[in-house]
Amino acid sequence: MNPLSYICLGVVAGILAGIFGIGGGVILIPALIYLFGLSQHQAQGTTLAIMVPPIGLLAAMRYYYSGNVKLNLAVFICIGFFVGGLLGAHLVQNLPEPALKKMFGIFLLAISLRMILGK
Question: pLDDT tens digit string along 58-75?
């Protein structure tokens, strides 16, 4: 994969986070596992590294020291996430609350079914 694919993931994750107000873990961990082939530990560690500035410095360092952070991915995804978060927050402002609730529920259901029923 090239850096552009990681930036695209960050943009999509940022948009969804901006729309749904959810953490990157709901979006990024499944994407890193199923789209980029990371292990669960690597996906969690890399996601923490992406979110380091506001929330995860100590936890990300623990994952990093265990070899479970892909810094090369985290940097590019973080760039996309930064831009995507702004876009998502902008897009959702005029969406009616009932539609947003339904979209959020469908999104979480799809992710959970994939995690439960997938390989």
Answer: 777 888 899 998 999 989
- pTM here is 0.66
Compute, in degrees rounded to 10, the torsion defined by CA atoms 98, 28, 77, 89. 10
Tally the domains of the chain: 1
For residue 15, report the phi and psi dihedrals to the nearest 5 degrees. -60, -50
- The closest of 26, 29, 78, 28 to 51, measured between CA atoms, is 78
Q: Does the pLDDT at position 6 exceed 90? A: yes
Phi–psi pair at 7, nearest 5 degrees? -65, -40
Residue with tokens 């959970």: 112
Bin 2: left if φ > 0, else alpha if -120 < ψ < 50, else beta.
beta
List the domain range (segments joined by +) for residue 74: 3-117
**SS3 of residue 66 by DSSP:** coil
Structure token pair of residue 21:
């107000």
